[in-house]
Design a protein that fits this description.
This protein is 42% helix and 24% strand. It contains eight helices and 14 strands.
Length: 221
Amino acid sequence: MRILIVEDDRALASGLKRSLTSLGYAVDHQSDAAEAAEVAVLEPYNLIVLDLGLPNGSGYDVMRKVRLKGLKTPIMILTARDHVSEKVKALDLGADDYVNKPFALEEFEARVRALVRRGFGVSSPVLECGPLTFDPTTGIAQLNGAPLDLRRRELAVLHVLLVQAGKLVPKTRLISEVFGFDDPVAPNALELYIARLRKKFGESGLRIRTVRGLGYLLDHA
């Protein structure tokens, strides 16, 4: 899952990025409104975390451009502006959530998870496919009730495949949701993580099927 943080407070942005990365998200950061608007409409983000006060424009400008493109990417406003009129304006322009600074990190993380689920039309916090379950709240994946020992990237790949279980996930989409701009990506990195997951699934009946030239599909035999 890939998230864009648009925030000109670099210390805050760095802390949020560390937090979300530790939860398995790929995170990009922009501090400029004009640059953020350009990136936000080009990359397939699962969530945009957006400050309102930015250089070269405002969060409202970014949001307008995203919505005018017809994109339904969930948008969380993260701002010190606490006037009701600001909240009403943001929600009317297409914001999905409005969080005032200062805020508790635990609440922020919970709101992120909720908005990402909403973006995929998923209501339950626990994802399932056959004997496999994954709880993004805890970051724990279990197979037949036993915890799976997964590295962060493996967990990120699994998360995307589970959200779309039974559906084809294009390779380009999987790469773009698992790796951020600053992440070094070897030519066969995705295939390596897929191979590791297949090995850990063993004889459980879980399959990650390769649809040659298109992508991958997670299902259960």
